[in-house]
Amino acid sequence: MISTADEILLRRAIGLAARAVTLGDAPYGSLLAGPDGTVLAEAHNTVRRDNDITAHPELKLARWAARELDPRTAAGTTLYTSCQPCGMCGGAIVRSGLGRVVYALSTEQLVEINPESGAWPTPPQAGPALFDEARVPIEDHGRRRAT
Ligand SMILES: [Zn+2]
């Protein structure tokens, strides 16, 4: 459920996306807010500027939160973003422990507006393989953590 307060912060994220366009960057913006709506950090897409395929605003904010916030504080935050996070950013958001995501455009809506963007297919993969060999470093790591 998206409240009027959510919509205000979502409009700010859309504004960050619009600002990105004026700077020559891709049209995506996000911000991270605390439980009372205080904006903690903002970002926009800088893939072109930074020549970095991972420079999505949601990923930047997830990394910032994992570095700067304790887990309890991170769990109380909401990430507002102009478009639904891609698979890469979704994984980072979960790993960083952010509490909630509110987005404006869904991936389906984004692809409808701009067919060149959006869809995140699974890469070609082969596996599993070499189970007995691959499990050794995993089990070793587990034993080290237990001691
Ligand atoms: Zn992304």
From TrEMBL:
InterPro entries: CMP_dCMP_dom (IPR002125), Cytidine_deaminase-like (IPR016193). It holds the Pfam family dCMP_cyt_deam_1. Residues 4-121 form the CMP/dCMP-type deaminase domain. SUPFAM superfamilies: Cytidine deaminase-like. PROSITE patterns: CYT_DCMP_DEAMINASES_2. Gene3D superfamilies: Cytidine Deaminase, domain 2. This is Nucleoside deaminase. It comes from Kitasatospora paranensis.
